[in-house]
Amino acid sequence: MKDFKEFAIEIAREAGIFLKDKLNSAHTINYKGEINLVTEVDKISEEMITSTITTLFPDHDILAEEFTDIDRGSDFRWIIDPLDGTTNYAHGYPYFCVSIALERLDTMIVGVIYDPMLDEVFVAEKGKGAFLNDREIHVSNTRGIIKSLLATGFPYDIREDRHNNLNYFNKMILKAQAIRRAGSAALDLAYVAAGRFDGFWELKLNPWDIAAGWLLVEEAGGTVTDIGGNNYFLESPSILASNGRIHKEMMAVLESASSI
Length: 260
Ligand code: IPD
Ligand code: CA
Ligand code: CA
Fold this sequence. Notes:
Layout: H1 4-22, E1 29-31, E2 37-39, H2 40-56, E3 61-64, E4 68-70, E5 76-84, H3 86-90, E6 97-104, E7 107-115, E8 120-125, E9 130-132, E10 135-137, E11 149-152, H4 166-173, E12 178-180, H5 185-193, E13 199-203, H6 207-219, E14 223-225, E15 238-242, H7 247-256
Parallel strand pairs: 3-5, 11-12, 11-13
Antiparallel strand pairs: 1-2, 3-4, 5-6, 6-7, 7-8, 8-9, 9-10, 13-15, 14-15
Helix pairs in contact: 1-2, 5-6
Bound molecules: D-MYO-inositol-1-phosphate and calcium ion (2 copies).
């Protein structure tokens, strides 16, 4: 049998190719909230991935965004975002991915993020480094936020809750070289791992948004904490991921904006 990493790459690719094929088709859009949408493609992608996992590893647990939360009492749990960047996808904006992570006894051991538009597969294995299409990747060497390209995102309840990241964004945009709100937290984290972004922060993400990207950043030599600098865990209410060199400076800027 293939190892977990090879298996995760295979199912991420299969789902990603499906997403790419359907990108320009008409989609059925349903709303989970005023600006939180889901298409039929998210659900089909999730079904493709979870059914294959269940066939090969029938005793494993699975958590995926749309409708899967299976607890079989296993030490292994697959954590899946079948389409990260749904808003982009629904508009035909080609920045989205499939994110698949495998956790064993509360430790992330495999993370795979696949961008089918660029045919880029980002892969990390605990203790074995991070790779992009088989080439080892590392976080950037950038020092100083003023030289940094950062990424962030905003929660779907941006209009309802004051903890919506606008305060942090307003401070950081005046300190950084530039900030992108590209629309896929998982891919943003993969880009931190690959040194394309120097840092990323966001609030209120879900386990499936960050599980694979978290391992990728750490295995690429970066630092992942919450925005206060505390150890990161899957349910943390915020995430700060960086090349490590700008971490403290980013924390200080976020801290200066924290009273809203
Ligand atoms: C969203 C994206 C987005 C982030 C949101 C996520 P979805 O995931 O990662 O960049 O800002 O908070 O929920 O809904 O496209 O899977
Ligand atoms: Ca997501
Ligand atoms: Ca999603």
